[in-house]
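Per-residue structure
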Amino acid sequence: MAKAHDPRYLPLLFKPHPWHGIPIGDDAPRTVTAFIEIVPSDTVKYELDKQTGYLKVDRPQKFSNVYPTLYGLIPQTYCGERVGAFCCSRTGRKGIVGDGDPMDICVLTEKDISHGDIILKAIPIGGLRMIDGDEADDKIIAVLQNDLLFGGWRDVSDAPPALIERLRHYFLTYKQVPGVAPPKVEITDVYDRDEAYDVINRSRADYEAHFSTLKQRLESSAGSPQRRGSAAKKRGASSGRRS
């Protein structure tokens, strides 16, 4: 009988944290895992609670703005020093820092997905260079893998300009409240697939810099395939069973 502390059984006992416990994917940045927090039909803004890993209600949508796409985050990414420095270099500005969150992602699909708190495979095709105050808040634009309508797109230039403008308009206006001075949010440019890859890779490097100890502990707890195989052989040899 397997021991209760056998690391192979940890995923059955505990839900992986969507930010730290779910792999980005072996083919990243060409194909990435996305954790979806919000879908276009949501009238409440949901957001990942970083401490618990559950979705929380951030705020009700007070006005008629709704998300134009599936929206969420890319696991094991972090918008830190490298993301902020890259935004500075591309805009010629100084003092911009990463917003301290996972990398945001907008996923295009023809399908009506009824709720968030799901993971999917997405293919990045570009991004919006958004600056919120003095923080880099990039939005990666991607398509759902194997989507019948959008799945063949490989670069943001494949998308109709009106669709990209819809995304730009949403993120430039979704925080505005009548009678209140609008927050300082701007989108300096829309970038292509190769630059999206660069932004994702920089956010992965930022994640490694800030959470390397956590990642090592997670990998140690789960055990690598090689370690699990070696352990299984040892158990089989000691019990007289084939591994």
